[in-house]
Q: What sequence folds into this?
């Protein structure tokens, strides 16, 4: 069986709430979009549930490009979750 | 020519102007924006997404170049812990005439604030807090006719 692992990155307070900056996860095959991935990650720990509690304040990038809940994810992708950006 | 850098150390605005204009006689105006840490915070720490940051800034610069005839751009953004009064970001946009230079500079900083993966954390007497995104920043970016 092919390795279906994704690399998940968390920044700012999402990192603090999940307690990790980076993790490798292997969700079930039916997790094929960012939205489904969030729903699956939410189940993984209370910290993850807290990080994803208010999705209005969560942004996402897949392979370093901004993404949305409908964006597809597949094995080997790098998926990053972070708050709305505040640089400049 | 486009220069994009993300760095911990400060930048030298004069040196960046000189690098942008060296050997050129076609530039008629250069827009400049410098963002600095505003008190009363004790310090501001900037975090970013290293693998994505320069690519995101390059997208923003490419969009500016699509909209205006630019002869060069410089975007330097600092990361790490910065104190009040310190520089955070430099935007320079060179063009043949003042209006594209000024407009592109404003566009670049407006889009940087809403589309480049940086996050600010403030230290103050009350503790450490993540800066929340401001709706005014989204509105400032949107006035350029945002194409996400």
A:
């Amino acid at each position: 069986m092919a390795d279906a692992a994704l690399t998940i990155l968390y920044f700012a307070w999402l990192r603090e709430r999940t307690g990790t900056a980076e993790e490798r996860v292997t969700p079930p095959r039916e997790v094929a979009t960012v939205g489904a991935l969030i729903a699956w990650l939410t189940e993984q720990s209370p910290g993850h549930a807290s990080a994803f509690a208010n999705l209005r304040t969560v942004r996402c990038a897949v392979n370093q490009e901004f993404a949305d809940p409908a964006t597809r994810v597949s094995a080997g992708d790098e998926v990053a979750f972070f708050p709305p950006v505040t640089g400049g | 020519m486009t220069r994009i850098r993300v760095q911990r150390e400060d930048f030298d605005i004069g040196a960046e102007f000189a690098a942008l204009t060296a050997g050129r006689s076609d530039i008629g105006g250069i827009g400049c924006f410098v963002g600095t840490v505003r008190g009363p915070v004790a310090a501001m720490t900037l975090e970013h997404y290293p693998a994505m940051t320069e690519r995101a800034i390059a997208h923003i610069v490419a969009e500016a170049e699509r909209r205006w005839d630019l002869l060069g751009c410089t975007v330097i953004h600092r990361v790490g812990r910065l104190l009040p009064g310190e520089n955070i970001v430099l935007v320079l946009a060179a063009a043949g005439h003042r209006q594209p230079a000024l407009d592109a500079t404003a566009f670049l900083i407006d889009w940087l604030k809403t589309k480049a993966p940086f996050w600010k954390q403030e230290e103050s007497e009350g503790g450490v807090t993540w800066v929340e995104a401001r709706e005014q920043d989204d509105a400032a970016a949107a006035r350029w006719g945002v194409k996400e």
Summary: The domain at 2-36+51-77+87-116+136-142 of chain B is CATH 3.90.1170.40 (Aldehyde Oxidoreductase; domain 3).
